[in-house]
Amino acid sequence: MFSSLMWMFVLLCSSLGDENSVRDADIFPSSTEIKRGSPVQRFCILGKRHMPHRNASHIIWKLNDELIPPENYNIVNETVSSVTINNFTYNTAYLKCFMKYLDNEQLLVHTEVKSGFPPDTPQNISCIYYFDNNLTCTWNSGRETSFARNFTLYRKLNTHPNSAVSSCQSETESCSFRYPDTPYSSSFCFQVKAENVLGEALSQCVPIAMEKIEKFEAPEILSVKKISSIKQLLTVTWKMPEKIIPSRDLTCQVQYRNLYSNSTEFATVPMNSAEKTGSCNLTGLWDSTEYSVAIRCISNESIFWSEWSGEKTGSTVEKAPSEKVALWRVIESPRSPESRSVHLMWKPLNNFPPPGRILGYKIQYFPENRTSLKMTKSSTDKKITLFLNEEAYVISVTAYNSAGNSPEAVLRIPSTDEKPAQIIETVRIFTTNKDLVVEWIASKPGATEYVVEWYEDLEMDPFRRSWQYVLNSTNWKTNKENFKPFICYNILVYPLFGNKVAAPYSKPTYVQEKKPSEGPVVDTDIPGKNEVTIKWKKISKDKRNGFITNYTIFYKPEDGKQLNETVNSDVLEYRLKSLQANTQYTVYIMASNKAGGTSGEPKTFKTLKLDEEDVFLIAVLVGISMFCLLGLWIACVLKQHVFKKVCWPDIPNPAESIAVEWPLGASMNNSLLKRLTSEAKTLGFEDISVLEHCFPDEGQEGSLLMNCENHVPECINTKDMISGDKKILHKEENEGAKCFSASMPYVITDQFNRSQTKPTFIAVKEIQPIEMLANNLCGSQENSVKNEENDDEVLKLEDFSEKTLFNPYLKNSVKTREFLTSESLPEHSMDECKSQSSVLPPFQQNVGGQSYITLDMFGLATAQ
After folding, report:
1. What are phi and psi of 122, to 5 degrees?
2. Could you tell me which of 29, 358, 470, 772 has the fewest CB atoms within 10 Å of its CB?
3. H/E stretch holding 375
4. Residue 414, preceding bond cis, omega within 30 degrees?
5. What is the pLDDT of residue 739?
6. Quick one: CA torsion of 205, 206, 212, 217, rounded to 10 degrees?
7. Which among 208, 390, 222 has a CA at the least distance from the CA of 304?
8. Angle at CA 13, nearest 5°, toward 7 and 18?
9. If we measure between CA atoms, which residue out of 358, 455, 442 comes closest to residue 398?
10. How far from chain centre, in Å, is Cα 199?
């Protein structure tokens, strides 16, 4: 029946839409909220504009752009199409109606559909009553519904649960009744109703007694005081809040704790609501200790404590410190023999509980051997620097407060010339998961205590050092968190014998390492031929990040294979050997620790072609060679006459002989010399022969010379030839002999006819080619007849008075000197002269009786 009515309603809406709607389509029903998991049915109604070409059969449906299967569609009539979605679980989704026509989809209309849950029944209703202020109740609303909820809190009388005395509205899980709508009664019950678009839920009415839910404001602490005549006691006074239910018994709780401990203690104080203030004495406290106090109160019938009051502090009565301070010192190296700095530092008193507030510290010191020179200083800080001389000193430090002084902490400062004994033999440092452990072995027993001192290796401030006393033990440990990672620390262990401090044992350590932050900077010496020295500096301490274990030297020739060498951490110089000569190398160094290694910047170098030994060897060889050449030159200079005599023996120069006197002038000689020299180049030496053994014996030399002088009245001289004419010798036509100089050699020309028996002789001053000499001879014979007509061209024969004395220096020359005449020289023609020849034996070197031809002979006689 209901379905029929629904369809009728839909059809009615469809007809109304066809007549009155101006839109293309509409979706019915328009409500968007549904219960999650329930089915959803919607209708899409077309407008008139789509009729009659399109109808409801062309409608398709989509949910969030996803096509809904056609089997979920239902065609109601031509203008109405419906879709059904079973089990709708989307929180929010969009249902869309499309018109599909000729494969085109047109969105007609869409609607938003939300799903959720109806509200659950509120549970766990509780209320708190602030007297004459407000009444606040809270509850648990259950699961989230996805829709907005509204809550209504009802306050009802237990006797009339169907009628509410008052109510309040809220959108959260809490609601309050404000004064004056907060009457005090023990007959109320409380009920909560929750509503949303899908429904509502109502809780039961829960009865709650007002006295059970009373809660008042926190009390206010007025004072925390000590009583000077009573130790270990504090008196606390507080004020109660004004709005409290009258005539009720109360209980207040005092909480106190000292500031040096994490433990908290409580004291309970009973009160009545009529009392406006309260007080409490806290006993059994520590002397000179500051305490923090807080208070809260509760009605004996209520279940709610008030909030804690604000904390307030107070201190118990002080007493004199009972323990001495932990005193230590750092002694700097003396700057001068009479002045050194001693840095004193101490820690707060190590007794517990502490002695209260320390007002200051008193420092006394004096020379060990002069106690009367005691000096006193005061400090409110826990450190001080004293400037002492070279003597040994005794120093004491005491802490004081208003009640008195602590015992003295005493240390002895040794003199500058003392050498403390080395008691500790070795120290071992290692780490565990959480702690750093130091163990040591002492060679001498009897140390009363030890001091372990540690500080960063780069720390220069002595007051930033840490130390701790160790009693009756040779090991010490502390949390690793007290040390920074990757930082080097120096740890020193000092044995103490009373107030005397023995020599420390120092050892560096890292609690955690990582690879160095940078590598070594490499440098090279001047490379050699096959080796080079590599140098580097230590990495700065702040960049090491651990103990350097070794250095690795990597070097690589150009276009070659990389090689490496590893050295210990204490090596900062290494010589690379067996390198290739005249080769460029790249080298860098890696510094390594336990955590890894880091390489420095590379550097290049090139080996030499020659090393120092090669250069030295070459220099030695060159020096030896130069020395030998120098020696040879000196020997040649000193023995040149010997070498000349052996290699180039002296040949006598007849032109310089004193045996005969040359009549010819220098001018004639020079002109003839130039002419003969220029023409001599055309003759060969093979055409020159020298007469041998033409002279008589020594006994006949004189007569021969005299006969020559008588036979020839004059000598034929030469005359300068101008414009190509030659200087010739001539004499009278019929004379058959010529007068030759005693030192002049004679050459026989046989250029043209060696079969003639009549030789022709000519005196020459220079060896010339035979052809030129023959021309000159024949020319001289031809021109002798013409000399009578050219008297101005003829040089008259001057009177020679040749000395006939024998000159030993020219002995060889005299022996070879001959005067040979041609019987009919003037009668022969030029052709006959050329045909005359005489065959002479070849030249022989330095043969006795042989005539000489020297370079000096090629010049005319000038030495007069």
Report:
1. -60, 145
2. 29
3. strand 375-379
4. no
5. 38
6. -70
7. 208
8. 125
9. 358
10. 76
The predicted model gives 211-227 an average pLDDT of 90
Report residue 855 as tokens: 């370079």
**What Å distances lie between residue 444 and 452, 472, 693, CA to CA?**
18, 14, 127
Starting at the earlier edge strand, list the strands of the sheet with 66-67.
33-35, 104-116, 92-101, 59-63, 66-67
Amino acid at 575: R
Q: What's the half-sphere exposure (Cβ side, CA atoms, 13 Å) at 120?
A: 12
Mean pLDDT value across the chain: 75
Decide if 155 contacts 165 (C-beta within 8 A).
yes
Residue whose pair of structure tokens reads 């009659």 in the numeric block: 52
Q: What pLDDT is stored for residue 842 in this prediction?
A: 43
Torsion of CA 22, 24, 28, 31, to 10 degrees: -80
- Inform me whether the pLDDT recorded for 268 exceeds 90: yes
Q: Compute the Cα dihedral for 556, 560, 562, 565 and give only its sign.
A: negative
Q: Give the pTM.
A: 0.48
Is 701 strand, coil or helix? helix
Tokens of 814: 């005299």
Query: How many other C-beta atoms lie within 10 A of the C-beta of residue 438?
Result: 22
Q: What secondary structure letter does DSSP report for 581?
A: T
Cβ count near 116 (within 10 Å): 19
Q: Using CA atoms, how far apart are residues 458 and 94, in angstroms rounded to an integer?
A: 72
Across 402-458, the runs of DSSP E, i.e. the strands, are: 404-405, 409-413, 424-431, 435-442, 449-456
Tell me the residue type at 539.
I
- Give all strands of the β-sheet with 383-388 in edge-to-edge order: 326-331, 340-347, 383-388
Q: Which residues pair with 45 in a beta bridge?
A: 26, 80
Strand order in the sheet with 277-283: 220-226, 233-239, 277-283
Q: Give first-to-last CA distance, the chain, whole Å.
A: 182
Taking the C-alpha atoms of residue 549 and residue 551, their distance in angstroms, rounded to an integer, is 7
d(CA 13, CA 82) in angstroms, rounded, equals 14
Q: Nearest-CA neighbor of 287 among 264, 317, 259?
A: 317
Strands 104-116 and 33-35, sheet pairing:
parallel
DSSP string, 824-849: TGGG--HHHHHH-----PPP-TT-TT
Q: What is the pLDDT of residue 358?
A: 85
Both structure tokens of 347 = 């820690």
Distance separating alpha carbons of residues 549 and 1, to the nearest angstrom:
99
Task: Extract the tokens encoding 449.
Answer: 């205590």
Output the six-digit token pair for 809. Answer: 């220096």
Q: HSE-up of 70 (CA within 13 Å, CB side)?
A: 7
Q: Mean pLDDT, to the nearest integer, of 244-250?
A: 82
Q: Exposed (0-12), middle (13-18) or buried (19+): which is 131, by Cβ within 10 Å?
A: buried
| Residue 852, token pair as written in the block | 């000489």
Nearest in space to 556 (alpha carbons), one of 583, 535, 533, 531: 583
Residue 778's Cβ-side half-sphere holds a number of Cα atoms within 13 Å equal to 20
CA 70 to centroid of chain Cα atoms: 75
- Within 90-162, residue ranges assigned H as helices are none
Contact (CB, 8 A) for 553 and 538: no
Tell whether the torsion through CA atoms of 351, 355, 357 and 361 is positive or negative: negative
pLDDT digits (tens, 9 = 90+) for 97-153: 888 877 788 888 888 888 889 999 999 999 998 887 888 999 999 888 888 889 999
Distance, in Å, from the CA atom of 780 to the CA atom of 727, rounded to the nearest integer, reads 8
